[in-house]
Amino acid sequence: MKPTTQDQAIESAFGHPVGLLHQRATSGLAEPALHRVMELRAFLAVTEEHLAWIRDRVHQSTARQRDLGELNPDDLRMDVQWLEAAVDARVGLLAALTNVLTSMPAAGLDRQPLRPPPPTVRLAQAVTPVPTRHP
């Protein structure tokens, strides 16, 4: 699981580490708000990762040691478009995440200890012949 810039806010809101919240959300036992927050967090992680890639690519292409003849305006324009799209996506995700976190009850949804879901027990069924009735 990739970290995000909002992990601390999520942990504060729910009172548990993001890893444990993720387990709960994927177990099917999550409250709707936790499920939404974890979905938004997943999108945010991907968006922030892409932002970092674009930033690093622009820094590489404009690095001081690079030959100025290697600069390609078309590549830089494309990077700017990608950067704008990624920034817009991040802003939207942060707004949605903030909305969910601030609309929750003040104490958070689940401040009690999270317990893992009960283990699934599979019992081997004994094969018992079913008595048949003869007419």
Task: Compile the SSE list and pairings.
Layout: H1 7-14, H2 18-27, H3 32-61, H4 73-103
Helix pairs in contact: 3-4
Task: Please explain how this structure is put together.
With 135 residues, the chain is mainly alpha-helical. The protein has 4 helices and no strands. The protein is elongated and about 55 Å long. It starts with 6 loop residues before the first helix and ends in a 32-residue tail after the last helix.
A few lines on this structure:
Helix content is 59%, strand content 0%. It has 135 residues and is an all-alpha fold.
Number of helices, where a helix is a run of at least 4 consecutive DSSP H or I residues: 4
Alpha-beta content class: mainly alpha
Largest sheet: none
Output the radius of gyration.
25 Å
Give the strand content. under 5%
Residue ranges: pLDDT <50 for 5 or more in a row?
A: 107-131
Question: What does the overall shape look like?
Answer: elongated
Using DSSP, what is the number of strands? 0
Quick tags:
mainly alpha; 4 helices; single chain; elongated; 135 residues
